[in-house]
Design brief:
The radius of gyration is 18 Å and the shape is globular. The protein is α/β, with parallel strands linked by helices and about 270 residues long. Strand 6, helix 5 and strand 7 form a beta-alpha-beta unit. Helix 1 packs across helix 9.
């Protein structure tokens, strides 16, 4: 498999342009770190040089990286007030992509990350509490007029090819804000937790599993918004099989059902 990268995009000094993605939400517990590490690792597997910037003092992304026993995204703590110098340094070091894992509650940190990013992904769970709380994030970001999209995380699985009512209602509410919605979200699956504990991701452990496909499609959505034209193709790094657990390795490939009108693509 090959992937699209933007190798002809340069700045005024002849260097290629690095892209930055901010994963944000003012509410805690939405799964920003889960989305961040999965996108960073998937981009790395796509052949990109990736920096995962952990701006959350809790350091969950850094913990994930410490548990990792194989090559992967460069992960480093970055203070929100030092984002622009960090991005400049990563650009000069030849990185293709920086993923910003941000902390909750801090409006100043969120604004700084969104201003620095080429794309912001607003993570939200399809729960009443999360959907009520997302308004504050949207209102904070709207005046900035920066590219952004919602990502639904921890969504319950479809039944008979249809999403539960809470997911359908969440989609309708989010689209009402006038922002893009990623056509694929991350479902509630145990493999996200077990792979995180190993410093891995579902795509790396089981690329053909439902979770692996979710991560792959979410990366495709993100990639297409960062690098719209297809200009160059680079070989992907093969997912590691050395650290698979028997239970995960035995999972059969899943066939996605036909997309439900008005629902996000899910497996």
């Amino acid at each position: 498999m090959s992937v699209i990268t933007r190798r002809d995009e340069h700045d005024g000094e002849g260097q290629r342009s690095m892209k930055t993605v901010a994963v944000v939400a003012l509410k805690g517990g939405t799964g920003k770190t889960t989305v961040s590490v999965n996108l960073a690792a998937r981009a790395y597997r796509a052949g990109l040089k990736v920096m995962l910037a952990d701006t959350d003092p809790q350091g969950s992304a850094a913990d994930w990286a410490k548990a990792r026993a194989e090559a992967g995204p460069m992960t480093a703590p970055v203070k929100a007030g030092s984002l622009f110098p960090a991005i400049y340094a990563a650009q000069n070091a030849g990185y293709d992509l920086m993923v910003l894992d941000t902390r909750a509650s801090s409006q100043a940190d969120t604004v700084a990350a969104v201003k620095a990013a080429d794309l912001s992904l607003i993570v939200v769970r399809p729960t009443v509490i999360d959907l009520r709380a997302i308004a504050s994030t949207v209102e904070l970001l709207r005046p900035l007029r920066r590219p952004a999209a919602f990502v639904i995380n921890q969504a319950p699985s479809q039944r008979v090819g249809r999403d539960p009512v809470i997911v359908s209602e969440a989609i309708e509410l989010l689209l009402g804000y006038g922002l893009s919605l990623a056509p694929v979200g991350l479902r509630t699956r145990q493999i996200y937790q077990t792979s995180f504990a190993l410093g891995l991701t579902p795509f790396e452990q089981e690329p053909a599993s439902p979770a692996g496909q979710e991560v792959d499609r979410l990366w495709a959505f993100t990639r297409e918004r960062l690098w719209p034209p297809a200009v160059t193709r680079r070989p992907e790094r093969a997912p590691s099989v050395a650290r698979r657990t028997p239970a995960l390795a035995a999972a059969p490939p899943a066939r996605p059902p036909a997309p439900v009108p008005g629902a996000f693509v899910a497996v």
